[in-house]
Amino acid sequence: MKNFIRAENLRHVYKSSSGDKVALAEINFSISQGEFVAIIGTNGSGKSTLAKHFNALLLPTSGKIFIDGLDTSDEKNLWRVRENVGMVFQNPDSEIVAAIVEDDVAFGLENLGIEPQKIRERVDLALDSVNMSDYKKFAPSKLSGGQKQRIAIAGVIAMRTKIIVFDEPTAMLDPQGRREILEMVKKLHAQGKTIIYITHFMEEAAAAQRVFVMEGGRIIKDDTPREVFTDVKEMRRLGFGVPVAAELAERLRRKNFKLPQKILTADELAEALK
Fold it and tell me: Which of 5, 213, 252, 266 is 20 to 30 A off residue 125, Cα-Cα?
């Protein structure tokens, strides 16, 4: 698969009267089309700054980021970059712009100049895909946090972007809401979307194909979830938790249970304990 997203010595510096702050420090990576990449890091590690570079909400202080070959810092590419990349943020209230659900999902399409009949078709399909068709005439203010986040995702689905960036989309949801959103993300990935998923929840990150671990504006690990999360000692040193099954397996090994290394899921642990 080709390198669909590529960063070359990407650097971002926030300037203020109290002094410059380096948020991204010359990072390099490539992501193939159709990959599912999770990004984790403690507060201030640069995760959200990086997220805003994928669709040129922020531009590099130096270095480059390319989206399907398009240099985001080239102004003439801005429209095409944003046609390629959809964003879902952590607070759905900050994303909703219309008083009626179907109007909100249609907002991005109207800005693209899509003809009205096609807008209606895309909105209906998008709402159906997130199980929110029955709510299309509702006011978003009447919906739960999880339902609002589904509406935000429907808006991105309707845009038919190739890449969807989720910046902590479940941070304000209860456990059931988090599970529902993650299942939608998996479904979108199965349909061929390239997924960038930023999260504080390690079980969510474990669902990805790759995990970037960020610290101090740098990517300090780039590996599979199994390799990242089963190194329990190193993850603790970095200040992260790990998925419950990996943590429990590590504790059982310390009590002389003979378990395979690199257990990641509850099913794997249950099978090993048999």
Answer: 5
